[in-house]
Amino acid sequence: MSLATRAAVTIDPKAIDQNADKQIRTPKSTGSDKVVGGISHIVLAIWAIVVILPLLWTLLSSFKTTKEIFKSPFGLPANWNFDNFVNAWVKNNFGPMFLNTVIVVGVALVLVMLLGAMCAYVLARFSIPGSRIIYYLMLAGLTFPVFLAIVPLFFILQSMQLLNTLPGLIITYVSFALPFTVFFLFSFFKTLPYEIQEAAYVDGASEWRTFFQVMLPMAKPGLAAVAIMNFLGLWNQFLLPISLNTDQSKYVLSQGMASFASSAGYQVDFGAMFAAVIITIVPVLIVYILFQRQLQGSVSQGTSK
After folding, report:
1. Residue range of the domain that includes 112
2. Is 254 inside a domain boundary?
3. Is residue 242 a contact partner of residue 255, using CB atoms and an 8 Å limit?
4. CA gap 126, 305 in Å, rounded
5. Which of 41, 147, 200, 229 could make an SS bond with 210 (beta carbons 3.0 to 4.6 A apart)?
6. 57 and 98 in a common domain
């Protein structure tokens, strides 16, 4: 190619820059978008204040005496000490209650995640007779009110000699959390690629190995999300333990809080009661803070699917 021809076909760099600017031009935000964004930020700020202020007030009150709480409910404590926490933990027997709650919720969470994942995997990946009926029955379990099952559960656990026992509570927790777990994980297992499952079969993996070593790790975002939500629900459960567990030596924290508030009558030690509230909610906050990234990732992944 001659120099004249090259000069004729030379592209102007300014024209390239202008075309590139047109292609990557970002959309301009309109006035209505700014109004919606501003209103959204205001609503979120108000919601954050509504959530944070009661928690902050409870935390400050846990360091006060009952006299200080009534004299200056919004002021700072005169002395920053942990006497109220000691009284709640030792004198009001919150130590054993905390241990009972950890045992019941921990064992129930492991069982419901294992059983729920296995059930959801089979219903989502295999065509077996009655699989749709089983799935719809699981969905029906989500709509069944808990209080309607209290009387039948009472007699069932009594006949099994599990009434007023921690294993009885664990079985009950698992049965009520299982439908939600299956419903949530069903969609995750349904969207996993079948090619990976078939490749595992070709490599000689059994059904159990394929599930535990191939498919289950791929559903980790969904498992993390449903585990957090199950933990919150089981930790704050009140109706089931108050109805099926009347042995004070096996009380969980929700029962202990109700018993503490009602047994003292008008002589309630409000400082110790607020300290007990902090003891109850701190594990939930810690779990959420540690696993919030997994929860957000699972939600974004589920919406993208």
Report:
1. 83-304
2. yes
3. yes
4. 20
5. 200
6. no
* One domain, residues 114 and 41: no
- Tell me the CATH number at 175: 1.10.3720.10
Selection from 78, 107, 246 nearest residue 167 by Cα: 107
DSSP per-residue letters across 73-99: TTSPPSS---HHHHIIIIIT-HHHHHH
Q: In this structure, are 109 and 245 located in the same domain? A: yes
Residues 161-182 have pLDDT tens digits of 999 999 999 999 999 999 999 9
Helix and strand numbers, DSSP H then E, in the chain: 16, 0
Number of domains in the chain: 2
**pTM of the predicted protein model:** 0.79
Q: Domain check: are 112 and 214 in the same one?
A: yes
Give residue 255's identity as a one-letter amino acid code: Q
Which DSSP letter does residue 164 get?
T
| Structure token digits, residue 159 | 């006949």
* 197 vs 29: CA distance, rounded Å: 45
Task: Note whether 240 and 150 are same-domain residues.
Answer: yes
Predicted confidence (pLDDT) per residue in 219-272, tens digit: 888 898 899 889 989 998 999 999 999 898 899 998 988 888 776 666 778 888
Same-domain check for residues 184 and 221: yes
What the block records as the tokens of 17 is 């820059």
Same domain for 127 and 253: yes
**135-139-140-144 Cα dihedral, nearest 10 degrees:** 140
Tally Cβ neighbours within 10 Å of residue 45: 10
Assigned token pair, 241? 């333990």
Contact between residue 244 and residue 169 where contact means Cβ atoms under 8 Å apart: yes
pLDDT in tens, 114-154: 999 999 999 998 888 888 898 888 888 888 888 888 999 99
Give the C-alpha separation, 118 to 112, whole Å.
10
Question: Is 246 part of any domain?
Answer: yes
